[in-house]
Design goal:
Shape of chain B: globular
Helix content of chain B: under 10%
Largest sheet of chain B: 6 strands, mixed
Number of helices of chain B: 0
Strand content of chain B: over 45%
Distance between the termini of chain A: 37 Å
Radius of gyration of chain B: 13 Å
Number of strands of chain B: 11
Mean pLDDT of chain B: 94
Low-confidence stretches of chain B: none
Mean pLDDT of chain A: 95
Order of helices and strands of chain A: EEEEEEEEEEE
Low-confidence stretches of chain A: none
Strand content of chain A: over 45%
Largest interface: A-B, 30 and 25 residues
Number of helices of chain A: 0
Structural class of chain B: mainly beta
Structural class of chain A: mainly beta
Order of helices and strands of chain B: EEEEEEEEEEE
Radius of gyration of chain A: 13 Å
Distance between the termini of chain B: 40 Å
Helix content of chain A: under 10%
Oligomer: heterodimer
Number of strands of chain A: 11
Chain lengths: 114, 110
């Protein structure tokens, strides 16, 4: 069946540009998560939605990072005025219910800021 | 914040050997999960553990939730070349945010 999809798979941005990364969760999955994975490290939590409600945004590194999920399905992670330290793989995951611990990941978007 | 220490950082083993890796934390978790990540892909869930002391298997993989709730172990028996990849542990206090370790990179020599 269809898994979590993310687009674009690769994005190169010049420093200072804004970027938008899209996540399509598994159909019917209530919860959606964004993680940032730096090279050679494990994923780090950014934010979490249950349906359209953003329940936890404690991991967003600065106010340049903004995520939304307006209809409780597709989500967009936006990064304004990108900096070199934003270069990383951005992973999206979804889970079936709000009470489910098992998260299913997409392939990620590799962002390179030059 | 919470940090997970995974060891070893990397392993080079011969095909057919058994593998053990572990994950420790300075604080407790209520759930432990083990993932495998291949290059250019997202992590894939291998095993989820929900109770202290629990031992769970998935084919050649066996994982345990430590009794102190601060550690977990993953064993792979009779390794094969497709076991190559990065293995991550993750802990959760409640359904939602996962805290990940930095991974164990496994190389299997045929």
């Amino acid at each position: 069946g269809a898994g979590v999809s993310q687009s674009p798979r690769y994005k190169v941005a010049k420093r200072g540009q804004d970027v938008a990364l899209r996540c399509d969760p598994i159909s019917g999955h209530v919860s959606l998560f964004w993680y940032q994975q730096a090279l050679g490290q494990g994923p780090e939590f950014l934010t979490y939605f249950q349906n359209e409600a953003q329940l936890d945004k404690s991991g967003l590194p600065s106010d340049r990072f903004f995520a939304e999920r307006p209809e409780g399905s597709v989500s967009t992670l936006k990064i304004q005025r990108t900096q070199q330290e934003d270069s990383a793989v951005y992973l999206c995951a979804s889970s079936l219910t709000g009470g489910s611990y098992e998260q299913y990941f997409g392939p990620g978007t590799r962002l390179t800021v030059t | 914040g919470q940090q997970l220490n995974q060891s070893p950082q990397s392993m080079f083993i011969q095909e057919g050997e058994d593998v053990s890796m572990n994950c420790t934390s300075s604080s407790i978790f209520n759930t432990w999960l083990w993932y495998k990540q291949d290059p250019g892909e997202g992590p894939v869930l291998l095993i989820a553990l929900y109770k202290a002391g629990e031992l769970t298997s998935n084919g050649r993989l066996t994982a345990q939730f430590g009794i102190t709730r601060k550690d977990s172990f993953l064993n792979i028996s009779a390794s094969i070349p497709s076991d190559v990849g990065i293995y991550f542990c993750a802990g959760q206090l409640s359904a939602g945010k996962s805290t990940f370790g930095d991974g164990t990179t496994l190389t299997v020599k045929p």
